[in-house]
Amino acid sequence: xxxxxxxxxxxxxxxxxxxxxxxxxxxxxxxxxxxxxxxxxxxxxxxxxxxxxxxxxxxxxxxxxxxxxxxxxxxxxxxxxxxxxxxxxxxxxxxxxxxxxxxxxxxxxxxxxxxxxxxxxxxxxxxxxxxxxxxxxxxxxxxxxxxxxxxxxxxxxxxxxxxxxxxxxxxxxxxxxxxxxxxxxxxxxxxxxxxxxxxxxxxxxxxxxxxxxxxxxxxxxxxxxxxxxxxxxxxxxxxxxxxxxxxxxxxxxxxxxxxxxxxxxxxxxxxxxxxxxxxxxxxxxxxxxxxxxxxxxxxxxxxxxxxxxxxxxxxxxxxxxxxxxxxxxxxxxxxxxxxxxxxxxxxxxxxxxxxxxxxxxxxxxxxxxxxxxxxxxxxxxxxxxxxxxxxxxxxxxxxxxxxxxxxxxxxxxxxxxxxxxxxxxxxxxxxxxxxx
Length: 436
Description:
Blueprint lengths: L9 H16 L11 H9 L27 H11 L1 H65 L6 H8 L3 H13 L3 E4 L2 E4 L1 H24 L7 H8 L5 H10 L25 E2 L8 E7 L4 H9 L7 E7 L4 E5 L2 E5 L1 H4 L2 E6 L10 E2 L8 E7 L5 H9 L7 E7 L6 E5 L2 E5 L1 H4 L2 E6 L5
Antiparallel strand pairs: 1-2, 3-8, 4-5, 4-8, 5-6, 6-7, 9-14, 10-11, 10-14, 11-12, 12-13
Helix pairs in contact: 1-2, 4-6, 4-7, 5-6, 7-8, 7-12
């Protein structure tokens, strides 16, 4: 009121009346003034006007007696309904216009946001599509290299099966490889070019380095090494690959016994010969296990046949091959045995019957560590080595817990506690009393 006109003037009274009627009770219909609650609601907002107030309003017409009626909530509502309803209608039209503009602005903002989000999703989908195509090309090169290394024919069907794609998609991949000069057709099959072989060896190098890393530096289960390496091998740059190899001391073999290609692309031959075809009674040691196909490798893992395990062939038939390893008998189908490569031995190695383990060492006895079982891998093997349990170390059983597990062993001047399950992984050679 103070901003628009002089307080107490006629204009101020009219503006105040309109505001009270508009915002306190909304647009007043002809019957609204007859409601009992209307005057009271008006007076709650207009402190200057109370029921029964003697104030006069110049905006009201004079009566027959010449006096203007008193300014009350009822007369205030009458003024609004009879003389100023057009102003209310104009206000409504303005409010409707503002609401329309706000609605249009909200729609434009919402539409723009939707277009922006859709653009981001489309760009992300395009990046993932390109990444998937690159992964398929690299996996195809790795498969073709595997076929060449094992003297197996490579075809569209074998590629589609390994990559788990349709035959038509495999045709697209081969065509793209041919355009890049990485693959050629020869003798009714697919062969890598020199450039394609270099790219394939790079992928093989990354894969086997990652498997070695997972085996030695992490607690990932053996059955998942191949899967995890497959997932990560496409994410590393050349600099990261070289740094990983240097950190691990440039290992020559992966945990399956397969040779790791060097940075220059040189790769050694696969050691050993297939287990299939060995005569009964032959003694051998496992030097390599093929980790593809994954189903076959999972069965070999379940049989606990690992690199470094000594074995003896008990039976060799076209239907099955029976071997003994770590004192246990294993029956393998020829398909499984073909993925196990061994090195034959001229004489039988010391068997489990003649081996002694740290878990069987009596309190007060000493022994010399021979080796740690190849079954012990990863962080657990590294922990035992860090504790000083390396070949040649003298260990003395000092004391046992009340329950018998764990047991305290004196190793290089310090007493360490080992669980029985850990001590059973350490092969030892007993020595005489006092030799320690």
